[in-house]
Amino acid sequence: MREEVWERRREQNTKTWCVVGDFNSIRSLGERRNAKFDANHRREMRRFNEFIENKELVDIPMVGRKYTWYKPNGLVNSRIDRILVFREWLDKWPDNRYYVLDSSVSDHCALVLKTKTMDWGPNTFRSLGIWQKDNTFKTFIRDRWGSYEVQGSRIFIFKEKLKMLKAYIKVWNIEVFGNVFQEGEEIQKRIQKLDTKDDESELDEVGREERKLLLTKLSRNSLSQEALLQEGSSQVLKHRDSNSKYFYSVIKWRSVRNGLREIKEEGQWVEEHGTVKEKVRDFFKERFRGEDS
Predict the structure, then answer these.
(1) pTM for this entry
(2) Which of 53, 83, 48 is CA-nearest to residue 68?
């Protein structure tokens, strides 16, 4: 019955919506405790994951508890209640969390979805590892950095140059890595064309040199594809165009998912960003304090 419901949901064309409730299914073995698993359970788990992946749904972070359902005898616990959203939902409301409240009468815990945008200050400057593998990257950075003329204190000059460099890096990234999958396919087609020509009549010196250059380009392209896939997810394999909205939503959501938006202190969740910053700073300050200090 539940699979029929999933299939009906899959046929819906609406994008900006979320699904909330008891799915009576788990996504991994770690989401159920003290329960036996047989072939049917594993098949059901696989189909549930396939439904989420095929529909490009996002399983947003859960806060508060590890499980959402507790058997009355307390021996078996499961995470069968969850909130799934489309990526278009995240374009409108990016900062989503749902909290698991204490259970009362029901053996299920109530879920509370919260979404709000807070100003955490300027975005940090981040460098992707894939940039370092491009031969032109360091030269590009050196030339751009040296071309900026800024007056003021050293820290002001550094801040302003970094701001200007960030804007140019965005453009450079699109130009160099914006469509590596399509570029790779085009290179392979050109190589295959030369191979076919070589089978019919041996390539001349110009043809052999062209093939050599194409193989070098293909090798660099493969490294770029691998790095981009690591930045994204397995679903990128189904969406070969790295310029697609889906690809960039994967990167964006990974950042949101890994972000720290609230902390729990003395049993209470603290969400005020100034307090969260202060508590995180105090934690790491104490963490890295010398033993003798």
Answers:
(1) 0.49
(2) 83
Neighbours of 230 (CB within 10 A): 11
DSSP string, 210-225: HHHHHHHHHHHHHHHH
Q: Does 111 lie in the same domain as 10? A: yes
Same domain, 147 and 252: yes
Instruction: Kindly list the distances between the CA atom of residue 269 and the CA atoms of 63, 70, 186, 214, 261, in Å, as whole numbers in the listed order.
Output: 10, 22, 52, 56, 10
| CA distance between the termini of the chain | 63
- At 57-108, the pLDDT tens digits run 888 888 878 889 888 877 889 999 999 988 778 777 877 788 888 877 788 9
CATH number of the domain enclosing 80: 3.60.10.10
143-169 per-position pLDDT tens digit: 999 999 989 888 888 888 988 998 888
